[in-house]
């Protein structure tokens, strides 16, 4: 568990509401235009960095400093969140919202005044797809599913609003140097005489000659991405990849206007454990390539890590959670590419009909074959 530094003085809650300077209504971030847009009067306002202007690179934070609660106070923020009693998602809400439903599982929730103190986001990947485009991608995906209940498809197509959620992730950088020991295998063949069906035959048998191998490999890992949310199944979010992290913008709350942001549920140290497992798999691949030969065995690896840094980033997901016949079905859409993933509903009636039709076709084919014989 990562300890966060105690902050002196009261902390302001994150404010993602921006009043229009023309009419006073709230701006929202418009994915299609890449600007803040007022739906009341049509006024727009540009966001720095979205119009091709030169911006400073996103700075990384020191991982070990975070573990020792030595991050600057400016890197910590406190937000008002509501915790879902069903899936435990922590989602930010505006101060004037008192009751709603969880965007991750459609469970009704009453918002509270719980404070979530966390490491501030460093980068954000803004939404590029509008809600209409995301809904179209989802309905097309549903239409392509075999044996999905027609009622669920109709229910989803009724135009119910989708939720735009910024999902939390960690990214990690590390410089690694690994010393290894193992063996290099060279395949050779021996010819042997064997008996088959009473006859002598010569066959080639593959053998492996093993020789010791030692060496060193080095690799710099850049932006190893780790999901920091527990609210969505990892298989969903993994299926939304790849994410174009080169398009990350330095975090500014204007990008969140009109959207919600989930607080991270995976602590920094736990996130790095997953990142380290990914790094180890890549390092093992590098070692096998370095060993060479036809086969490789790895006996030991000693990896030294240096310059470990991280970022807390927010990635855009359009989400729909539908209650249908007592079951909750969730669909997620990559807010940049339109890639869709979700629960896989099945229709028992359609499956039964398909089985019966299959049996009829099989019986007809069998009858034709028998008649011809």
Summary, kept brief:
This protein has 373 residues and is α+β, with helices and mostly antiparallel strands. 21% of the residues lie in helices and 39% in strands. The protein has 2 domains: 27-171 and 223-289 and 309-342, no CATH class; 345-373.
User: Looking at the structure, what is the overall shape?
Assistant: flat
Distance between the termini: 74 Å
Strand-residue fraction?
A: 35-45%
List segments where confidence is low: pLDDT < 50 over at least 5 consecutive residues: 1-15, 95-99
Overall structural class, as computed from helix and strand content, comes to alpha+beta
Order of helices and strands: EEEEHEEEEEEHHEEHEEHEEEH
Please provide a written account of the structure.
By secondary structure, this protein is α+β, with helices and mostly antiparallel strands. It has two domains: 27-171 and 223-289 and 309-342, no CATH class; 345-373. Helix content is 21%, strand content 39%. The protein has helices at residues 63-67, 131-143, 150-156, 234-239, 268-291, 348-372, and strands at 27-30, 35-38, 44-45, 61-62, 76-83, 90-92, 99-101, 108-110, 114-119, 123-124, 163-196, 199-227, 249-250, 260-261, 295-324, 327-334, 340-342. Strands 4, 10, 11, 12, 13, 14, 15, 16 and 17 form a nine-stranded mixed beta sheet that branches. Strands 1-2-3 form a three-stranded antiparallel beta sheet, with no helix packed on it. β16 and β17 form a beta hairpin. It is flat.
């Amino acid at each position: 568990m990562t300890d966060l530094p105690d902050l002196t003085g009261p902390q302001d809650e994150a404010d993602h509401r921006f009043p229009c300077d023309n009419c006073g209504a709230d701006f929202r971030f418009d994915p299609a235009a890449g600007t803040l847009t007022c739906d009341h009067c049509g006024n727009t306002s540009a966001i720095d960095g979205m119009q091709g202007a030169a911006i400073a690179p996103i700075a990384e934070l020191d991982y070990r400093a975070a573990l020792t609660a030595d991050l600057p106070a400016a890197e910590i923020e406190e937000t008002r969140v509501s915790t879902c009693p069903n899936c435990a998602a922590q989602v930010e809400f505006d101060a004037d919202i008192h009751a709603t439903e969880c965007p991750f599982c459609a469970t009704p929730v009453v918002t509270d005044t719980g404070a979530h103190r966390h490491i501030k986001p460093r980068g954000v990947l803004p939404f590029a797809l509008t809600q209409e485009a995301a809904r179209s991608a989802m309905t097309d995906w549903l239409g392509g599913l075999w044996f999905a209940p027609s009622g669920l498809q109709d229910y989803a197509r009724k135009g119910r609003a989708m939720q735009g959620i910024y999902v939390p992730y960690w990214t990690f950088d590390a410089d690694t140097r690994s010393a290894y020991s193992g063996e290099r295998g060279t395949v050779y063949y021996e010819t042997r005489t064997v008996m088959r069906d009473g006859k002598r035959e010569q066959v080639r048998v593959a053998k492996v000659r093993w020789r010791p191998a030692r060496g060193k490999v080095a690799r710099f890992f850049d932006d190893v991405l780790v999901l920091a949310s527990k609210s969505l199944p990892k298989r969903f979010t993994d299926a939304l990849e790849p994410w174009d992290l080169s398009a990350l913008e330095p975090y500014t709350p204007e990008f969140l206007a009109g959207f919600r942001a989930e607080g991270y549920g995976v602590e920094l140290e736990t996130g790095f454990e997953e990142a380290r497992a990914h790094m180890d798999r890549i390092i093992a691949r590098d070692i096998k390539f370095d060993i060479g030969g036809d086969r490789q065995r790895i006996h030991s690896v000693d990896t030294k890590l240096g310059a470990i840094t991280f970022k807390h980033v927010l990635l855009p997901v359009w989400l729909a959670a539908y209650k249908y016949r007592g079951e909750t079905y969730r669909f997620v859409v990559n807010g940049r590419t339109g890639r869709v993933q979700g629960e896989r509903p099945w229709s028992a009636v359609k499956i039964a009909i398909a089985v019966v039709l299959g049996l009829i076709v099989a019986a007809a084919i069998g009858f034709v074959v028998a008649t011809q014989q």
